[in-house]
Amino acid sequence: MSTTYTLRSKHRRSALRTLAFLSPWLIGFGVFFAYPLISTVYFSFTHYDGFGAATFDGLKNWSYVFNDYPLFWPALRNTLWLVVVMVACRVVFGLGIGMLITKIKTGVGVFRTLFYLPYLAPPVAATLGFVFLLNPGTGPVNSLLGDLGIPAPDWFTDPSWSKPALTLLAVWGVGDLMVIFMAALLDVPKEQYEAAELDGASPWQRFRYVTLPNISPIVMFAVVTGVIQAMQSYTQPLVAGKVASGIIGNSGQQFEPGYPDKSTLTLPQLVYNLGFQRFDYGSACVVALVLFALSMVFTALLMKRRGGLIQAGE
Amino acid sequence: MTYALETPEAPEAPKPPEAEAVSPAAKVARRKALLQWIAVHSLGVAAALFFVLPFVFLLLTSLMDNQQTLTRDLVPHHWAWSNYRKVFDTPGFLTWWKNTLLYAGLGTVLSVVSSVPVAYALAKFRFRGRNLSLMLVISMMMLPPQVIIIPMYLFWAKQLDMAGTLWPLIIPLAFGDAFTIFLLRQFLMTIPNEYLDAAKVDGCGEFRTLIKVVLPMARPGIAAVALFQFFYAWNDYFGPQIYASDTPASWTLSYGLESFKGAHHTDWNLTMAATVLVMAPVILVFFFAQKAFVEGVTLTGVKG
C-alpha cells in the first residue's frame, strides 16, 4: 500500500518536473502558435478592417481570394515556379559543390570558407547587391557578358528573367547545402568505393550506385526543407521588386506588388498586401491558411521519412 | 554528428606519389593523379570566383564616386573612402545599429535561456506526449511567419499597444524558439546518458544535472544555436516591417537598408557602402565562430 503511494507520488513528481522544464515552450506554444492559428481560421470567415468588431461573413473572403483577387493565382504560380526550379538548382549545385570540396586537397579550408560565405550575406543586403550587379544597362555582370559577346538579359526588370535572377541569388547562397552534403559524402564507407573500383566501375557508375544510394536520405532532406523554404520566399522577391522598380516604400508612392508585371509576387507577400496595405484582414487570413496547408503537407513529409531524417522516436 | 569537418579526407585520395617511380604503371597513375588535381582545383577556383566576385564588385562600387557607379569601369578612379563616413552620418544609421543589436542580442539570450530546459526535457526525459511535443516543435519551426501574423499583429498593436517598437519580436523569444529547441535537442541527444546517471548517483536533481553536467558539455551546440538566432534577428526583414515600418526610430539595419536606397535614390556607391556595412559584422562573426556555425548547419541534417 505504502509502496504504491510512494510510486504514485514519484510519478507525479516526475510529471511536474517535466512540466516545469517544458513550461516556457508550453506558454509559447499556446500564445504564439495555437491561439493565433485558431484566430486566423476564425478571421478568415469574418469581415474585419481593424476597426469595430469582426462580423461573420461566411465564405465571402474565400470566394474573393480564389475568384476575384487578381494577385492570388499569379502569386501561386510564381511560388510553384520557385519551389520547382529554385529547389532543383540549389540541390544539384549544392551537391556538385559538396562533391568538389571533398575532392579538393590543397587549401580546402580557404575554398570551403569562400564557398560558404554568400550563405551568410543578409538577404536584404544580398538582394540589393544583386539588383545592382545585374542592373541591365551598366551592371558589372552585363558589362562582362557584353564584352564576351553574349546577349545579356534584363534580369530583375524583365518579367521572364526576374525569377531566374532570384534563382541565381539563391544558388549563390548554397553554402548550407554544401556543408550538409559534404558531411554526408564523407560518411560514405570508403570500402564501397574500393569495391566498385575493383569491379571496374566508371566514375558515373560509382556516383550512381555507391554515392547516390548512400546520401539519398540527405538529398531528400535537402529537397523537402528546400521546398518549405522556397514556399516562404518573401524578403528577396519583395526587396528585388521594390528596388528594381525604383520605388521604395515611405516615399509616398504606392509600390506595384510583384514588379515587374507580378513576376516576383509570392504567397507570403499577399498576406502583407491584403492585411497591411488593404486592411482586409479576413482575406489575408485566407491566403495565410493556404500557405499553412501547403507548408504542413511538406512538414508532414519531413517527419514521416524514416531512416536518418528527423525522427520523433529514438 | 562528429564529422571530421576540419580536415576532410577525400574518399579516394591517391597514394602519395613515390619519390622515384619505378614501373610505367606507377608513372601513368601519377600523371592521372596530377591531371585530376589540376582539374579539381581549376573547378574550385572557378567556383570560388562565382562565390566571391559579387562581394568584390560590391566593395569596389562602394568606394567609387557617384558618377562612376553607372559606368562600365570596375575599378574606382579614386578611392572614395569618405563614402563610409557619409553612410555613418546618415540620420538614423546609428539608431538602426543600436536597434539591431538590441533585437539580436537580447533576443538571442532570451531564446537560448528559455529553450535549453525544453530541449533537455525533449532529449532526455521519458514522458507521455514526448513525440507529439517534438512534432509540434517541428511544425512551429516550419510555420511561415506570415500564417499567424494577422492575429499576432492585432494582439500586440490593439491589445498591448506595442506597435512601433521591436518588443513584439523580442518578447516571444523568451518563451522558447522552436528552431533553437529543435537544434539543441538534436545536440543533447548525442550526450551519453551515463553522464547524467552518474550525476544523479552523486545526488544531483534534474536541474542541477542540467546546469552542472549538461550545459558544459553542450557548449558547442549552444554556441551554434546562439549564432543562428543572432543572425536570424540580424537578417529579419518581415518582423520589423510589420511592427516598426511607420516608426523609423525602431528600424533595424535590414529594414533601414532598403529605405536607404530610397533616400539615396541614385547614389549606388553610398547604398553599396551601407550594404557592405550590414554584411560585414555577420562575416566577421563567422570568421571567429566558423566551427560552431558549420557544426550547427550539419546538425540540422542529422538524424535524431
UniProtKB/TrEMBL annotation, chain B:
UniProt-listed Pfam families = BPD_transp_1
The record's section on SUPFAM superfamilies has: MetI-like
Q: Where in the cell is it found?
A: Cell membrane
The annotated region (Disordered) lies at 1-21
Q: Where is the ABC transmembrane type-1 domain?
A: 97-289
- Which keywords does this Swiss-Prot/TrEMBL entry list? Cell membrane, Membrane, Transmembrane, Transmembrane helix, Transport
What sections of the protein cross the membrane? Answer: 37-60, 101-122, 134-154, 166-188, 209-232, 268-289
Q: Topologically, how does it sit relative to the membrane?
A: Multi-pass membrane protein
Family the entry assigns? Belongs to the binding-protein-dependent transport system permease family.
Write the protein's name.
Sugar ABC transporter permease
Source organism of the structure? Streptomyces xanthochromogenes
